[in-house]
Write a structure and sequence with these properties.
globular; 5-stranded antiparallel β-sheet; 9 helices; 7-stranded antiparallel β-sheet; about 30% strand; about 300 residues; alpha+beta
Length: about 300
């Protein structure tokens, strides 16, 4: 089944409690996806010329200090990691291609979950309620975020196969549904230079959007391309540095609900994940139409 949640802050009060609200929403979706959970949170932009990188380690005793020291020798600065459970976020004094290339060469045992200016990705196997506690989501602030609870259908249960998937800078995707043409499309996208780390169908959808954006399309145009090029059933929620977007397949096979107040915009697979938000009782609530892109962005300062 899988569960999706998304929250876009329109006020300082919601931004300061974004992680707390997101964790509560994820808890409501636990029974839709008990295999694993993950979040993409947008916050604390890296300085100009620097890159924020989210890393995952299989080793519970990972020495993140050695990664920090190597990055400092290679690029300068003081890239002190922000550690949450099995993940660490580094701000590296280099552009994203250089930082990622160095990490892949010198630390192939680590998995790069995301890179960009604002994005941080955390995901792990196990019950979503346990994930929320383990990663201390309650103390995270941010401008907007997406979350996912997974019931595996297209690939095995691992941390790497959990959502969100990020294949481009500050871009991520979470998905409820399944794609039937992902193997063929993955081969085509690889010929276009898109890299994949798993055999998960959702990562192919993320790669497709990365490719379309690289070709100069807007996010709305790239999502509209999904309607023609992706076969299967889906509700997508896509995160960018400035906001998020939602798309359902042409027959709206997978559930979704959206709501908006003066303080936030939210989406979820079921209304119960929105009902826990402050002010939900007075929100404008609607079911997103099939094959229609909905998007929200914050203003750049």
């Amino acid at each position: 089944m899988c569960g999706i949640v998304g929250l876009f802050s329109k006020s300082t009060g919601v931004e300061e409690r974004l992680g707390e609200h997101l964790g509560t929403m994820l808890g409501q979706m636990s029974d839709r996806g008990p295999d694993s959970a993950g979040v993409a949170i947008y916050r604390d932009p890296a300085p100009p010329g620097a890159t924020k990188v989210s890393l995952y380690s299989h080793d519970a005793h990972e020495d993140w200090g050695r990664v920090r020291d190597g990055l400092a020798r290679a690029f300068g600065g003081d890239p002190e990691p922000a550690i949450r459970a099995s993940h660490a976020v580094f701000v590296v004094d280099a552009d994203a291609p250089a930082a990622q290339a160095w990490l892949r060469e010198h630390h192939p045992e680590l998995r790069i979950m995301s890179a960009g200016e604002r994005i941080e990705i955390y995901k792990e196997m196990g019950l979503p309620t346990d994930f929320v506690q383990r990663f201390s989501l309650g103390d995270i602030h941010g401008s907007h975020a997406l979350g996912h609870t997974r019931m595996a259908t297209e690939s095995r249960v691992t941390t790497e196969h959990s959502h969100p998937f990020s294949t481009g800078l500050d871009l991520c995707l979470v998905h409820n549904g399944s794609l039937s043409n992902h193997n063929r499309l993955r081969m085509e996208l690889r010929r276009e230079g898109i890299e994949f780390q798993t055999d998960n169908d959702t990562e192919v959808a993320a790669g497709y959007l990365t490719w379309k954006l690289r070709e100069g399309l807007s996010l709305e145009e790239a999502l509209e391309g999904c309607l023609e090029d992706l076969d299967g059933f889906y509700t997508f929620a896509v995160g960018t540095a400035d906001g998020f977007a939602v798309l359902r397949d042409p027959i709206a096979c997978k559930p979704a609900v959206m709501a908006e107040t003066d303080d936030w915009v939210a989406m979820a697979s079921e209304y119960r994940a929105i009902a826990v938000l402050p002010g939900a009782d007075t929100a404008t609530v609607w079911e997103p139409e099939p094959a229609k892109v909905y998007s929200w962005e914050r203003e750049r300062v």
